[in-house]
Amino acid sequence: MNLRNWILEMIQRETDHARAGKPARIVLKLNSLVDPACVAALYAAWQGGVQVDLIIRGICSLWPGVPEISEGIRVRSIVGQYLEHSRVFSFANGGRADCT
Q1: What's the pLDDT score for residue 45?
Q2: Whole-number Å distance between alpha carbons of 100 and 18
Q3: DSSP type of residue 96
Q4: Which positions of the chain have pLDDT values less than 50?
Q5: Are 24 and 94 in contact (CB under 8 A)?
Q6: Strand order in the sheet with 88-91
Q7: Which residues contact 46 (CB under 8 A, 6 or more apart)?
Q8: Strand, coil or helix: what is 24?
Q9: 21, 49 in Cβ contact below 8 A?
Q10: CA 70 to CA 45: how far, in whole Å?
Q11: Do the beta carbons of residue 57 and residue 77 sit within 8 Å?
């Protein structure tokens, strides 16, 4: 539960930065993305001006390319030799990158 709450807080922080005219970008590399609250937060972040890039190795509930909802969100699937289990969370943080 703590990881989910942290991710939602970081997505909201990026959305706030974008609305304030600061650099705002989210890059997530995950095994899967199926949590409805996280998907909704990523849609809202993109709609608020955040650049969103997702690298997902498994199932992804977010639909990229939907006009006015997610048309600028990029989702990549990794398979083959690059299919490792590490996760990456990267947030622009208004110009002070915050990566985990």
Answers
A1: 97
A2: 20
A3: S
A4: none
A5: yes
A6: 74-77, 51-56, 25-30, 88-91, 98-99
A7: 52, 70, 72, 73
A8: coil
A9: no
A10: 10
A11: yes
What beta strand segments (E) does the chain contain? 25-30, 51-56, 74-77, 88-91, 98-99
pLDDT of 58 reads 84
- Can you name the residues that pair with 54 across neighbouring β-strands? 28, 75
Give the tokens for residue 32.
């899967």
At 66 the pLDDT is 94
CA torsion sign, 6 to 67 to 27 to 49?
negative
The DSSP secondary-structure symbol of 81 reads: G
Task: Return the residue matching tokens 């992804």.
Answer: 60
**Mutual orientation of helices 2-19 and 36-47 as an angle, nearest 10°?**
10
- In this structure, the strands spanning 51-56 and 98-99 are unpaired
The reported pLDDT for the residue numbered 50 is 97
Residue 87 neighbours by CB distance under 10 Å: 13
